[in-house]
Amino acid sequence: MKGLRKAISLIVTAGLLSSTAQAAISDDEIRIGYLADMSGTYRDLSGPGGLEALKMAVEDFGGQVNGKKIVLFNADDLNKPDVGANTVRQWIDEKNVDVITGLVATSVVMAVNKIVEQENKLALISGSASSALTNEFCSPNHIHWVYDTYALSNGTAHAVLQEGGKDWFILAADYAFGHALEADLSRVIEAEGGKVVGKVRHPFPSTDFSSYILQAQGSGAEVVALANAGADMVNALQTASQFGLTQSGQKLAGMVVFLNDVHSMGLDVTQGLMLTTGWYWDMNDETRAWAQRYYERVGRMPGMAQAGVYSSTLHYLNAVKETGSDETQVVRTQMMGTPINDMFAKNGTLREDGRMVHDMYLAQVKTPAESKSEWDLYKILRTIPGDQAYRPLADSQCKLINN
Amino acid sequence: MMILFGVPLSVLLGQLLLGLINGAFYALLSLGLAIIFGLLRIINFAHGALYMLGAFVTVLSLQYLGINYWFALFLAPLTVGLIGMAIEKGLLRRIVGEDHLYGLLLTFGLALIIEGLFVKLFGVSGSSYPMPDALKGGFNLGFMFLPKYRAWVIVAALVVCFVTWYMIERTRLGSYLRAGTENPKLMQAFGINVPLLITLTYGYGAALAAFAGVLAAPIYPVSPGMGANLLIVVFAVVVIGGMGSIMGAIITGLLMGLIEGLTKVFYPEAANTVVFLVMVLVLLVRPAGLFGKET
Amino acid sequence: MSEAIKTQVQQQRIRVERERRIAASRRNKIFFAVFIAIALVAPFGIYPVFLMKLLCFALFACAFNLLLGYAGLLSFGHAAFLATGGYITGFVLTEYSGLSTEVGILAGTAASAVLGLGFGLLAIRRQGIYFAMITLALAQLVFFMYMQSSFTGGENGLQGVPRGHLFGFIDLQDNLNMYYFVLAVFLFGFLLIQRTIHSPYGQVLKAIRENEPRAISLGYNVDAHKLLAFVLSAALTGLAGSTKTVVYQLASLTDAHWHMSGEVILMTLLGGVGTVLGPFVGASIVVTLQTYLSSGPLGAWVHVILGVIFVLCVLMFRAGIVGWTTKLVQKNFK
After folding, report:
1. Does any CB of chain B come closer than 8 Å to the CB of residue C289?
2. Cys-Cys crosslink for A275: which of A170, A257, B275, C34, Cβ 3.0 to 4.6 Å?
3. Which chains touch A (3 or more CB pairs under 8 A)?
4. B16 burial class (0-12, 13-18, 19+ CB within 10 angstroms)?
């Protein structure tokens, strides 16, 4: 295993070095590019950990497919669409990269998707949230693997509504992702007889949430939903805690909450928080075993995005092996025809619109008393079957679906 | 419940109070900038980085030395003040008398270095700092729940602002400083060590920024970029107030906090931008700012 | 000293000055020729998209240098013009897909010029730091406007801008074609700036920069001269933004953010304010550092390195790299 890891590091280095020389580009290689936020607010969502997960997948697969070497590239997109798009453009132009994975900030993903569609390459999206990626922005060149805003809203909002939270206040980030989440959420609330009694859109990003929390408190809503992510969500939650929001009886619902967010905020602030996740490390023996291997390499437990990178890469490599080709549409068709059965998902299916449909899980953050170790943070309340979690094809605006 | 502009009065009062608290924060930061510009004629683009240093000293001193918040209130400004003095003596001194542009560019470069170093050392994400126990919880004011810490922020900031203003405008030391920057040669002839005074002044401005950083640590995420985003807003406040005016900076800071607070109620998406709109409008009508004097 | 000898010395001095100027001009012509030669073959060895980025930013820096180095005005809001060029061109080319590319670029440039006029009218009367701050504030308002507009795509940016066909028939999707077009645009902008500096208008601008009260007393309409420089600078910046958007087929908020305004100041200062080659050199260094450092192990040090260079430039190489090398050359190769 160690020798293999060394070999892969050498290949990666060779790949990076050869970028400066204008050598002839051979196609006897599978080239995978990993693009994510490696140093900014979304760093722990996928970031360097996701790169490790990618390497693990390549190693577990044997480092080569039918004799062709697997070569990895990686770059930091700084959460900027121009940086991400330019990197991918250069990878495709200069190095003929076959597939892009990672992919976190929605703005970056959308720019990358345009290029990947133009050049007929493939993008495997594990980090980004927007459900629009398989709706009005779908394409035959990208696949959305782990979760989306529709599934998250469906899961969390539905559960909270069941518990009796009828009046909602939505605090949303003022950009496309926040708007999409706000829309998906409102739809679910109203469909189940609830009501959105107030909402506010805060500039993205913001540091001071006191004013918005005050508005939420003054609205009289039973539930305050945070339709934002990353640093904004953490900030809002901490401010809510300072202003005693939950003490006065209101409930907090975080729409996009990752394991690393809960870990960094601590259980004191987050206990009792309801959330929906696509995967959790402590669900069964398989997940625990993989998570342990990841932990030994990275020093942190994996979240759903990193697990998704591992799973999507393996599925891709298997499809390349079966078809003997790295031509995008051939591989994609093979991927769609094969169910996903690994530590990430059981009986997952890839739909025509690029959505990987698998079970989602409703979870609640444990209290400090319930938690037995540093990363023992969630209890899984129940499973949401894949066919109920995601947007049904009948409602889809995707151009690939004949609606 | 009385409704004003479609918003219940109690909500409006709460937002105004929050705005005032943010305003006190702006006042504190603008004060440091105004002192450095008004007295030293240096456009200190490193002010945001100094603020960030203050917050980081607070976090790190707790993490590695176990120094609690109350000591950090003195330790951080002292440390950063010394750093500021070193900056003035070592770097800014070399461009004395040159175009203002160079001071601006030098401090801008300095900010890049300091923030870049901290990103390298600590990453871009924020660290959190625990709320000091004595300031946990809050007061129920009827129209809102006010956390004790926020009440402390406004009190501490205003006290420091007032003490600083008094020192500069009403004491002999302050008069030496004001005279020394207007006519250094004459003051030197009287035996006042003007270069030392200048170094101390920059150090004090830096200490003010760091003090704001300590106040910020328990409620805002402490990240290397925390100063950069705040800096242009604070500059706008200083310009609106009038670049040389000490009182102008304090009053405008409070005013802008209130205006921003109201914007968050009626048009929250514009909350980060409203200060610039105000700046353009004010400068059209009063070219030297609200309290400034034309130079 | 006798009168005859004094006149002789004076004439000698004038002769030496003239020779120096002729030598400098000859030197510049040689540099220019070498530059064109290299530029024509460069895309066959270096990734063309990178070269195009370099040229666009060099044009941006040249336009900024016109305002700072020759008119003596420091603007903190030039990102607004870069973004306006980019967004308007992107919008026009996306909405009217049959349109020839250069029409889209012209639209973006014109929009930037108009915005420049607006900014200029509001800001020109102020001096020094107040001028800089007004331009910053106006640019922030523009940023906000672009962030909130739907046509810009907000955080996602304006994506999928077609490269289209130049003059209706040259396919710009081909990177090589696109490169030569960008090179032509850069040369156009650069030569326009040179002609402006060496024209009578340019001389008046220089006089204003060196001694404004005297220029006023001589009867020159100082505000009008400054305004024209501002509009020209804004228009050429818009041209750079428009071209960049066509190259990358994307216009994003990064172009409108105040960091971008700071970057162009860095490039200009680094290269040498008020020099001919300075902006190009400065832009090349910054763009290269950012592109190649970010992907290597030194990635996290980019900002620190840039900051150190900045500080060194202010403290020591006040005339920038070009200014410094010129002095070096003059000292050693008289």
Report:
1. no
2. A257
3. B, C
4. middle
Is the pLDDT at A1 greater than 50? The verdict is no
The stretch B13-31 carries a mean pLDDT of 92
Q: Any chain C CB within 8 A of the CB of B43?
A: yes
Q: Which of A2, A4, A1 is nearest to A63 (CA)?
A: A4
pTM of the model: 0.87
| Sheet strands side by side (includes A251-254) | A195-202, A167-173, A223-227, A251-254, A274-277, A360-365, A378-384
Alpha-carbon distance C148 to A204, whole Å? 11
Q: What is the pLDDT of residues C248-261, one digit of tens each?
A: 999 999 999 998 99
Interchain CB distance below 8 Å, A231 and B128: no
CB pairs under 8 A between A and B: 88
Q: Does B149 touch chain A (CB under 8 A)?
A: yes
Q: Any CB–CB contact under 8 A between B287 and chain C?
A: yes
Rounded to the nearest 10 degrees, how much is the dihedral formed by the CA atoms of A104, A110, A114, A117?
60
pLDDT band at C296 (very low <50, low <70, confident <90, very high): low
Q: Which two tokens stand for residue A30?
A: 């599978």
Give yes or no for residue A268 having a pLDDT over 70. yes
Q: Is B269 on the interface with C (CB under 8 A)?
A: yes
pLDDT at C154 over 80: yes
Distance separating the N- and C-terminal Cα atoms of chain C: 28
Chain C residue with Cα closest to B238: C133
pLDDT at residue A52 is higher than 80: yes
Q: Do C314 and B106 touch (CB under 8 A)?
A: yes
Nearest-angstrom CA–CA distance, A121 and B252:
55
| Residue A347, CA distances (Å) to A338, A357, B64, B239, C4 in order | 9, 9, 49, 62, 104
**Two structure tokens written together for A334:** 């093979």
CB pairs under 8 A between B and C: 107
Token representation of residue A61 = 């697969």
Give tens-digit pLDDT for A306-335.
999 999 999 999 999 988 888 899 999 999
Under the banding of pLDDT at 50, 70 and 90, the label for residue A25 is very low
Q: Which residue from C47, C157, C159 is facing A90, i.e. has the nearest CB?
A: C47
**Chain B stretch 154-193, residues whose beta carbon is closer than 8 A to a beta carbon of chain C:** none
Nearest CA in chain B to A260: B125
Tell me which chains share at least 3 CB pairs under 8 Å with chain C: A, B
Cβ-based neighbours of C276, under 8 Å, separated by 6 or more:
C28, C194, C322
CB pair distance less than 8 Å for B101 and C310: no
Residue C276 DSSP SS3: coil
Rounded distance between C-alpha atoms, residue C43 and residue C49, angstroms = 9
Question: How would you class A10 by CB atoms within 10 Å of its CB: exposed for 0-12, middle for 13-18, buried for 19 or more?
Answer: exposed
At A334-366, the pLDDT tens digits run: 999 999 999 999 999 999 999 999 999 999 999
Least confident of A177-191, A368-382, B101-115, B184-198: B184-198
Contact state of A82 with C248 under an 8 Å Cβ cutoff? yes
Our separate counts of H helices and E strands in chain A read: 15, 15
Q: What pairs with residue A274 in β-bridges?
A: A253, A364
Task: For chain B, say whether C300 makes contact (Cβ under 8 Å).
Answer: yes
Instruction: Report which of A139, A202, A143 is spatially closest to residue A169, judged by C-alpha positions.
Output: A202
Say how far apart CA A301 and CA A281 lie, in whole Å: 7
Which DSSP symbol is given to B271?
Answer: T
Question: If you ran DSSP here, which 8-state letter would residue B222 be given?
Answer: B
Cis peptide before A205 (omega within 30 of 0): yes
Shortest alpha-carbon distance between residue C123 and chain B (Å): 9
Residue whose structure tokens are 């001194």: B93
